[in-house]
Amino acid sequence: MELKRLNGCPLHGVGVRPDYLVGRRLERVVASWHLYGTDAPDGPLDVWLIDSEGVATHVTAGSDWCLIVESSAAFEGYDMAELGRVQVAPVSGETPFADRLGEKVLAVCEEGEPDSGRLALELTFDSGRVRCDTWSGDLRLSSK
Description:
Layout: E1 26-35, E2 46-51, E3 56-61, E4 67-71, E5 78-79, E6 85-90, E7 107-113, E8 117-125, E9 128-135, E10 138-143
Antiparallel strand pairs: 1-2, 1-6, 2-3, 3-4, 5-6, 7-8, 8-9, 9-10
């Protein structure tokens, strides 16, 4: 399936075309979480999908609420002093992608606006779909 090329986000560019994921198996998922005191972390800030070719696809929300999809390795967690810390670790059940580990990506679909770039990415697996989008500047993951 040929994806229509979206115009790039004015701040973050076009990123990668995620159709290279089709046919690859999802081997690992790594995510970053903002931890503050004893509060439970909200959804992940970033996810990295590591496929059967060893490629890490980074998905995150841009500062202008676009959806960034790029090929890059996970970064290290870091301490933000009184603002908490960002922890980066493999996921077990914290995202909809955890339920798709070991499955092949069957299709990808992007949604976007001509002037603002990518707004959503949906990956289809045998067991269902995972949608990545942004809401109020936060990365949002859902399962269908």
